[in-house]
Specification:
This protein is α/β, with parallel strands linked by helices. It has 13 helices and 24 strands. The protein is globular and about 60 Å long.
Length: 430
């Protein structure tokens, strides 16, 4: 069990870049692999999750060369993909599972997909239901709600689908199936979710139209390989931003972070809580907005977080909950039911970890209520094999009065392999 010693008299200071965005890395591999010609992905996130997507396409005959954080994909188009000779393993990657189910459903061969002990307990019916409406054929556990799932691909037709849950993964699965289906496929969202799939489909030459909350695709011609630059992952940056926001004397710059408006909810939360935060050197690369985020410590106040902003910060809620423990007053998080079907039930996991460290936090059906400002104690906590819970506990250990012992930090490699080294690089004695 790693012991994280409390850090007396420190500040977070300096500048750095966080690794590439996980969501964009997955999508770049998928679209590069089904395009014709060479795709080069720069600043690819070399993490356990993203490599599951790479391995899936290697099983389908795609040549993918890796050198550091650069991938070169020799795309042969969708028609060049080969039926996999063995089951495709998705590990712990929910993004790989849901997006690949969409793509595999459109391909004219059979495949069998499975995951680790966590992923096989995450619901897949949210993508299976619309894909079945398109003509997809599946066999799986518990009425095909859970992996492993066998599928027989091809012969899809377009549908109009009103999203019952706000999920970029579900939307993306339908769009990836739609570019191989007959007719028009339209997805209608109640709130905008992260739009990396739409941006990247456009960059690879797909026939896509976006109007407000409606996205429409049809059977695209040949997609063409292109160069992709993956911006820094704002979900990873959020942990370091929070550390700087809650530790007096801190001043941190994180460079080249993706600040796509469908992902920037955590920045808005920090601003509303009163953080001293600014964005400099904004630029657009490949349809994605990047910038340098500068944050300094300042006293924070509790707020209510709900509604349309939730899909834009769903992965950041664990660290936002820690942030709220250090804000004066009450913070309420609502409409976050999606947290229950992440790597673990994140609502309960967040509450369990922070309560054990002395925070005043209660779970609700769709979120939590946090009363600050709390003095956090040391203690022993579980990571629940969830990378974002593990990293939240590490950041909490910077401000606890005693040491924090965490059962396992290995899950951090899922999204941010260099997290501990990056954090140590910006910790200074105050």
């Amino acid at each position: 069990m790693p012991v994280l010693p409390n850090q007396d008299s420190i500040r977070i200071y300096g500048s750095l870049e966080v690794p590439g965005d996980k969501s964009i890395s997955h999508r770049a591999v998928i679209l590069g692999s089904i395009s014709k010609g060479t795709t080069t992905i720069n600043n690819f996130l070399d993490s356990e999750d993203c490599m599951r997507t790479v391995d899936a396409f290697r099983l389908m005959g795609v040549e993918i060369k890796k050198s550091g954080n650069t991938l070169q994909i020799d795309g042969k188009g969708k028609s060049g993909l080969e039926e996999p000779l063995e089951p495709i393993y998705f590990g712990n990657s929910g993004t790989t599972a849901r997006l690949m189910l969409g793509l595999l459903t459109s391909l004219p061969f059979s495949s069998l997909v499975y995951g680790d002990s966590s992923l096989v307990n995450r619901p897949m019916d949210r993508v299976i239901v619309p894909l079945a409406k398109m003509g997809g054929k599946f066999i799986g556990r518990k009425q095909t709600n859970y992996l492993p799932i066998a599928l027989d691909g091809g012969n899809l037709h377009g549908i109009t689908y009103h999203m019952p849950v706000n999920s970029a993964q579900v939307k993306s699965a339908i769009l990836l199936a739609g570019i191989g289906a007959k007719g028009v496929t339209k997805v209608i969202e109640s709130y905008p979710t992260r739009n990396h799939t739409e941006n990247m489909l456009r960059a690879f030459g797909a026939n896509i139209k976006v109007k407000h909350n409606e996205i429409e695709v049809n059977a695209s011609g040949v997609l063409r390989g292109t160069d992709v630059y993956v911006p820094g992952d704002i979900s990873s940056a959020a942990f370091l931003l929070t550390a700087a926001a809650i530790i007096p004397g801190s001043s941190l710059i994180i460079k080249n972070v993706g600040i796509n408006e469908t992902r920037s909810g955590v920045i808005e939360v920090l601003e509303e809580m009163g953080a001293s935060i600014s964005i400099e050197n904004k630029t657009v690369v490949g349809g994605e907005l990047l910038g340098d985020i500068h944050i300094e410590y300042r006293a924070l106040s509790g707020i209510t977080i709900e509604g349309e902003i939730i899909p834009r910060l769903i992965d950041e809620i664990p660290i936002i909950a820690l942030l709220a423990t250090q804000a004066e007053g009450k913070t309420i998080i609502r409409n976050a039911e999606e947290l229950k079907v992440k790597e673990t039930d994140r609502i309960q996991a967040i509450v369990d970890v922070l309560t054990s460290l002395g925070a005043h936090i209660d779970a609700t059906e769709d979120g939590m209520v946090i009363i600050g400002k709390s003095t956090l104690k040391g203690g022993t906590v579980k990571s629940y094999h969830d990378h974002r819970i593990a990293m939240m506990a590490v950041i909490a250990s910077l401000i606890t009065e005693g040491n924090v012992t965490i059962d396992d930090l290995s899950s951090v490699s899922i999204s941010y392999p260099s997290f501990m080294n990056d954090l140590k690089a910006v910790i200074q004695k105050a």
